[in-house]
Amino acid sequence: MVRWKRDAKNDHFKTEEIIKSTYGFIAPKRFTYSNLKTLTSSFKEKIGQGGYGVVYKGKLPDGRTVAVKILSKSKGNGEEFINEVASICRTSHVNIVTLLGFCYEKTKKALIYEFMPNGSLDKLIYDKGSPITNCHLDSKTMFQIAVGIARGLEYLHRGCNTRILHFDIKPHNILLDEDLRPKISDFGLAKLCKTKESIVSMTGMRGTAGYIAPEVFNRYFGGVSHKSDVYSYGMLVLEMVGGKTKFDSGLSQTSETYFPHGIYKKLEQCENFETLGDITDEEEDTIKKMIIVSLWCTQTNPLDRPSMGKVIEMLEGSLQSLQVPPKPSMHSPVRSPQNSSTTSQSQQTATL
């Protein structure tokens, strides 16, 4: 994370100086608040809203459509703002949203992104206000989206000169372009660390309930690392599948929802998923593969989770090559490698 000395009167100037001095010619363009009013036609069309603020649709002078995220005035926004700019400036990947510019004028803070016409993944999963007309999230589409997100995360963890841990992977933060290609967005909670670092120091809890890895809210379960994003990814994919296959059976979004004993039993006994409805054997195999990989990602012990590179390998491999992982327990502490005389095969592969 970029650090800077706090100066309330000159924050917007210091922010621009930090960004330009750090990133030079690759730094995103700075817009004035007046510019934003012009390109959004005085914030005429709202396309999204959340705890972070409001997103409006706009158009640049060159004709490109953009999404303008106006950040709310909540406490700590300044640090999250510079953090998001600093993180995303370092990225260039087809599965990472592109930051085109920013605005920082006293209390006015905004980020200008490429426009994603198909909105966020959560709307597509539950068909709530989705801009996609008559779109069915079939197994092939789900699989392609899952692989795309995995590639984006693998890039953040290993493809950048500086490793980026996102810490807020969830359907709401996955945007979809005109071809339903997923792009990871919202880097406000991200943390930068050296590529070779395995465990990072962190104060407080980051993320969204339901997607947070156990070790993030309680160090009792292990150290916080890129494996924390892997956990969130697993929960996201399980929600993609569950949102369309009704695995949750109306339950609230808790760990019990996503780790039903019935799913484990069916996988272990090679039973069919009647709840999936009328699908082909190939489609069922695809969904089973996504579930098995997700269950590996959501293991309680971070060492038992695969890296995102391994996740991609598992997804693109055959279903027959995958083993059903052990049922995770939220009541058992992580065994310290230093205090253990043996290391499981899954731990050895997961640390890659």
Question: In words, what does this structure look like?
Answer:
With 352 residues, the chain is an alpha+beta fold. It folds into two domains: 11-114, Phosphorylase Kinase, domain 1, CATH 3.30.200.20; 121-350, Transferase(Phosphotransferase), domain 1. Helices cover 36% and strands 14% of the residues. It has helices at 11-23, 33-39, 77-89, 121-126, 139-159, 214-217, 227-245, 255-258, 261-268, 281-297, 308-316, 345-350; strands at 29-30, 46-50, 53-59, 65-71, 99-105, 108-114, 162-165, 174-176, 182-184, 191-194. The strands form three sheets. Strands 1-5-6-4-3-2 form a six-stranded mixed beta sheet, sandwiched between helices. It has a two-stranded antiparallel ribbon with strand order 7-10. Helix 1 runs parallel beside helix 3. The protein is globular and about 60 Å long. 38% of the residues are buried. Residues 1-10, 246-258 and 331-352 have low confidence and may be disordered.
Q: Give the % helix.
A: 25-40%
What gap, in angstroms, lies between the N and C termini? 24 Å
Order of strands side by side in the largest beta sheet?
1-5-6-4-3-2
Order of helices and strands: HEHEEEHEEHHEEEEHHHHHHH
Q: Assembly state here? A: single chain
What is the residue-averaged pLDDT? Answer: 77
Give the full name of the CATH homologous superfamily of the largest domain.
Answer: Transferase(Phosphotransferase) domain 1
Query: Which residue ranges are poorly predicted, with pLDDT under 50 across at least 5 consecutive positions?
Result: 1-10, 246-258, 331-352
Main beta-sheet annotation: 6 strands, mixed
